[in-house]
Amino acid sequence: MALSRAQTNHGESLISSTFASRYVRAALPRFKIPEQSIPKEAAYQIINDELMLDGNPRLNLASFVTTWMEPECDKLIQNSINKNYVDMDEYPVTTELQNRCVNMIAHLFNAPIGDDETAVGVGTVGSSEAIMLAGLAFKRKWQNKMKAAGKPFDKPNIVTGANVQVCWEKFARYFEVELKEVKLREGYYVMDPEKAVELVDENTICVAAILGSTLNGEFEDVKMLNDLLVAKNAETGWDTPIHVDAASGGFIAPFIYPELEWDFRLPLVKSINVSGHKYGLVYAGVGWVVWRTKDDLPDELIFHINYLGADQPTFTLNFSKGSSQIIAQYYQLIRLGFEGYKDIMQNCRDNATVLREGIDKMGYFDIASKDSGVPLVAFSLKDSSRYTVFEVVESLRRFGWIVPAYTMPADAEHIAVMRVVIREDFSRGLAERLITDLNKVMGEMDTHAKKHVAAEPPVAKKTVHEIEKEVATYWRRLVDRKKSSLVC
Questions:
Q1: Separation of alpha carbons 343 and 247, rounded Å
Q2: Could you tell me which residues carry N6-(pyridoxal phosphate)lysine (predicted)?
Q3: Confidence at residue 472, expressed as pLDDT on a 0 to 100 scale
Q4: What is the C-alpha separation between 452 and 439, in angstroms, rounded?
Q5: Measuring CA to CA, how many Å separate 266 from each of 223, 228, 258, 294, 388?
Q6: Which stretch of DSSP H or E encloses residue 46?
Q7: What would the 3-class secondary structure string for 338-365 be?
Q8: In this predicted model, what pLDDT tens digit does every residue of 58-106 receive, in sequence order?
Q9: Across-strand partners of 417?
C-alpha cells in the first residue's frame, strides 16, 4: 500500500521530519525580522536547539539564584504567568499575597510592628530595584532635613564597602549620590565598621552594610556598625541611619544564626532588602524591601494611580511586572514555614562544610570564605606562579561545572579567587563529585605545568594590571560581544 503525503502550498510534505524541512536547511535572519512566518513546530525546534548550548543552571555554581522549585509551585507560576501585577484592582488576591509576604518578611526581620499591624514594604524585581527604592527614600529624607535646616542639599553621599554589588554603584551614578567606599585588604574582604564610620559626614544619607558579601559570603558586623554610629550621632548631633543589603543573607541568618543582631533589633537599621530569588527559594526575579516604620518612607515618593480601576498606591521603578514570582514566594513561605527554611539552610551549610573540607585537604588552596555566613566556598591558589585560577575554572568546564573566578576589589586586587555557591539543589553527592573533578583537574594542571617549566624558562610573577587583563580576556572568550547588546 502506498503512503499518501499531503502537500503544503510550498510543496512540502506535512509528515516529513522537522529536521528535513526547508526551515532548518537555511540559516534564519539573526538581526532582522524574517519576511515570512514559519510553522510553530519549526520555530520551537530552532530555538530549543540553540538553547541546548547554554550551560546547565543547576551546575552554574556562580549563581546565587534559585534553580529548582517543586512541581506544584511550577504549576502556580505557569497558571499566573499572564497576570500583570500592577493591575491590583483586577487581581486583588495577588495583591493580598504580596502584602502577606511583606508582613511575614518584616516580622522575620523583627520590625517593631504588632501582630495585627501592617508592615511597610514592597515586592520588587530583584534586590537591585529594592536597593534603588531604599536609597531614594534615604536621599529624600536627608534632603528634606537639610532644606528644613537651611543647609545645602546638593552633595549627598553614601558609605559602604568596596565589596558591594554593582547595583550600589548604579544607584550612586543614576541618582547622583557620591559613593564613599571602604577599601578592602588581604584577609579582610568586608567593610571595616570603624573605617566606615570615619567616612561618615553630615551629607551621608546612610551607611550600607552587606549581610552576605558576594565575594566570600561573609556577614558584615552590623551590630558594631550600629553601636559606632550611635556614638558618632550623639557626638555630632547627626542621625545617620543604616540600610542592610541582605540580598543573600536575609533568608539565611534568621533561621540558622538567630542570635546574630543585624536587623530591626538595631535602632539605626531603617530599611532592609532581600532577594526572594536567592535563598528565598524562588526563581528569578523577585526581591523585597521593608522599612522599619511608615516614617522612614517619605510620602512624596508614593504615587497614586486610578486608571486601572481604583486608587492604587505604588512605589516602584518598574510599572508592569509579572505576578508569578510573588505567588511563588508566598507558596514557599507557607509551604516550608520556619522549620522548613531552617532545614534547607542547615543542609546547605553542611554541604558547604563538606566541600570546604574536601578542597582544603587537596593542599592547593587557601580558603577565603568563613565557616558562618552564606553557604559558599571561596578559595585561592596557594601558588599561582605556574597556573591561575582562571585556567583552573576553564578546565572544570569540560565536566559541566560553571565556577566563577575573579579578583578582589581595591585594595586587594592581587588576590584572585574561585567561588562555589551552595544552593538548595546542590546535594552532598554533587559536592563530592565536584571535589573529585577538581582534584583531577589539579593533577592535570600540575603535570602540564611541569612539562611547561621543563621546556621554557621561568615566567615573572604577574602584576595586578596583568591579572585584571587576564580576567577580561578570559570572559571575552565566553561572550561574543559583537553579537550582544552589552546591556544587562
A1: 20
A2: 278
A3: 62
A4: 20
A5: 7, 12, 14, 17, 43
A6: helix 40-51
A7: HHHHHHHHHHHHHHHHHHHHHHHHHCCE
A8: 999 999 999 999 999 999 999 999 998 887 778 889 999 999 999 999 9
A9: 406
Q: What is the mean pLDDT of residues 442-463?
A: 71
Angstrom CA distances, 215 to 75, 311, 379, 478, stand at 35, 43, 10, 21
- Tens digit of each residue's pLDDT (9 = 90 or more) over 211-252: 999 999 999 999 999 999 999 999 999 999 999 999 999 999
CATH top-level class for 1-54?
Answer: few secondary structures
Name the grid cell of 173: 551614578
Q: Does the pLDDT value for residue 133 go beyond 60? A: yes
Gap between the Cα atoms of 59 and 393, Å rounded: 13
Where are the chain's structural domains?
Answer: 1-54, 74-332, 347-483
289 with 271: CB under 8 angstroms?
yes
Q: Which three-class secondary structure state does DSSP give residue 400?
A: coil
Secondary structure in 3-state letters for 111-169? CCCCCCCCCEEEEECHHHHHHHHHHHHHHHHHHHHHHHCCCCCCCCEEEEECCCCHHHH
Is 359:352 a contact under the CB 8 Å cutoff? no
Res. 463 pLDDT band, cuts 50 70 90: low
Task: Give CA–CA dist 265/261, Å, rounded.
Answer: 7
d(CA 147, CA 354): 55
In this prediction, residue 6 carries a pLDDT of: 44
The CATH class for the domain spanning 347-483 reads alpha beta
The distance of Cα 441 from the centroid of its chain, to the nearest Å, equals 28
Chain centre to alpha carbon of residue 149: 39
Buried b or exposed e, range 370-396, using 16+ CB within 10 angstroms: beebbbbbbbbbeebebbbbbbbbbbb
Domain 74-332 in the same topology as domain 1-54: no
Just give the CATH number of 74-332. 3.40.640.10
